[in-house]
Recover the amino acids of this structure.
């Protein structure tokens, strides 16, 4: 198992956003994380990257290296940094704060840029790129991170179909290489077409398994109900609640 | 030509002033470039105010002593920086609001302490600087702070850039995020303290931010911006000192006005995103 999640409760300001999540993600699996807005999808990814401490429960990870592709909105694209330097940050796990970027590394950076269809863009500043090009740059950085576990946050939002298709091909390549991929997605047709497994979240786990079995009208209805039923004054939940399904 | 060199050749105090200003230019402006790029330009101003009570307490305790005022300024500045960072990371309040709160408290304390001493000419020197009266210890201190600043910036350069561009990514791959932020704020404080020896607490932030803002219109990369900013600051110091000598003007504000002139000229005529570039239509073929 790449990820074993045990009784995981996550939240901000002691208000839980994800309740008592209990599931396992298999090594080398390609999983879509879906659910309504506010279901706790991004929160779950934050917890897996370690930037958010669980209120309760734990996450066990076997991956030596984790790569995380945050939402594009989190990046300051007005900062005067070249595409090459931005992608080079993917080497952090190997070179850290002080290591040198050698000739071999430079070749890997150029190869990653070529793989995302941006050969020759290395010298441009990131502010000059379109949204789709910037997302390709973000993928190039993940490529360089060479991670066993890859977490993608809404990777295909606000980009054109051509770019989405190119980037989906990269995700499928990672899957082929045996890497574990977890992606937060909203486009159900896309999930059906490219993601073998799906984790449906709505403040807790609604269902997890093969995509066709998870994305049923019944499950969608329950997910929507869970999110709409959110109540600020709700009584504290008992351990075990929300573990149904 | 003689008018350009003669004051510096003839008077030791002019040489000292120039050396001090160049030291500040080398250390403070790279810090200013990062402040600007992180949209924290006004943070520099707030920190400059926050330093006041420390310097004032140092002055009250041991008179016009360089050491006491420097230590006081650093302590006050770092206290405000740490409290601000702590509050914004632990509570709901954002960094800007939390900084505003603490620097206003600090400033009020400073004004209170200053008022207790009434109108004191020496204290005016603290507020408005004494660039023409820099003695050996002051010069040594300025050069030391510049050296420490440049070495530290070189050491934390990569995490600092990453913290500016994509802080969440930095937090996901390392533990540098919080330390690099506090180290950077410490550099801001340190350089403001260096600046107030020469230019006063109110003017010190000018030589940090104005050259950086000017450099934005000349270079597209960080390295280029830092190089331009340092040159603008050093050249403005030279021009400001000369003007203050020839026209009998107070030196601190004259130096800052020189950097301000450089900023205005850059904003109008610089090659990157300036008024001319934006509003002087050229056909797209010769762009």
């Amino acid at each position: 198992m790449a990820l074993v999640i045990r009784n995981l409760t996550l939240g901000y300001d002691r208000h839980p956003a994800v309740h008592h999540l209990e599931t396992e993600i298999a090594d080398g699996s390609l999983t879509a994380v879906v659910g309504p807005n506010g279901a706790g999808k991004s929160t779950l990814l934050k917890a897996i990257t370690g930037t958010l401490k669980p209120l309760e429960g734990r996450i066990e990870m076997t991956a030596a290296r984790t790569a995380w592709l945050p939402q594009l909105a989190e990046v300051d694209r007005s900062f005067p940094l070249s595409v090459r330097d931005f992608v080079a940050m993917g080497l952090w796990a190997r070179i850290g704060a002080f290591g040198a970027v050698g000739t071999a590394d430079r070749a890997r950076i150029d190869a990653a840029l070529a793989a995302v269809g941006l050969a020759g863009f290395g010298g441009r500043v990131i502010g000059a790129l379109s949204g789709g090009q910037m997302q390709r740059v973000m993928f190039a950085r993940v490529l360089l991170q060479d991670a066993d576990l890859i977490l993608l946050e809404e990777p295909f939002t606000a980009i054109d179909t051509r770019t989405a298709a190119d980037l989906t091909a990269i995700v499928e390549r990672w899957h082929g290489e045996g890497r574990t991929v977890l992606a937060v997605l909203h486009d159900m047709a896309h999930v059906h077409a490219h993601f073998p497994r799906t984790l449906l979240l709505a403040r807790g786990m609604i269902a997890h398994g093969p995509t066709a079995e998870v994305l049923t009208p019944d499950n969608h209805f329950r997910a929507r109900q869970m999110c709409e039923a959110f109540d600020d004054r709700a009584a504290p939940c008992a351990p075990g609640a929300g573990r149904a399904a | 030509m003689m008018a350009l060199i003669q004051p510096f050749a003839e008077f030791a105090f002019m040489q000292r002033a120039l050396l001090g200003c160049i030291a500040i230019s080398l250390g403070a402006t790279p810090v200013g470039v990062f402040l600007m790029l992180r949209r924290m330009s006004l943070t520099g101003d707030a920190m400059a105010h926050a330093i006041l009570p420390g310097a004032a307490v140092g002055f009250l305790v041991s008179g016009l002593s360089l050491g006491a005022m420097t230590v006081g300024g650093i302590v006050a500045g770092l206290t405000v920086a740490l409290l601000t960072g702590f509050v914004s990371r632990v509570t709901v309040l954002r960094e800007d609001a939390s900084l505003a709160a603490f620097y206003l408290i600090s400033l009020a304390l400073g004004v209170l302490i200053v008022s207790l001493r009434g109108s004191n000419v020496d204290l005016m020197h603290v507020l408005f600087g004494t660039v023409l009266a820099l003695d050996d210890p002051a010069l040594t201190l300025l050069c030391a702070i510049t050296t420490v600043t440049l070495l530290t910036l070189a050491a934390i350069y990569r995490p600092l850039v990453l913290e500016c561009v994509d802080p969440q990514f930095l937090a996901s791959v390392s533990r540098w995020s919080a330390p690099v932020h506090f180290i950077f704020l410490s550099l801001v404080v340190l350089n403001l303290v260096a600046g107030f020896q020469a230019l006063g607490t109110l003017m010190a932030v000018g030589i940090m931010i104005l050259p950086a803002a000017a450099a934005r219109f000349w270079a597209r990369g960080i390295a280029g911006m830092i190089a331009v900013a340092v040159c603008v600051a050093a050249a403005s110091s030279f021009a400001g000192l000369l003007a203050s000598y020839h026209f009998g003007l107070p030196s601190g504000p004259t130096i800052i006005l020189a950097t301000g002139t450089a900023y205005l000229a850059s904003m109008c005529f610089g090659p990157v995103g300036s008024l001319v570039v934006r509003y002087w239509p050229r056909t797209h073929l010769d762009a």
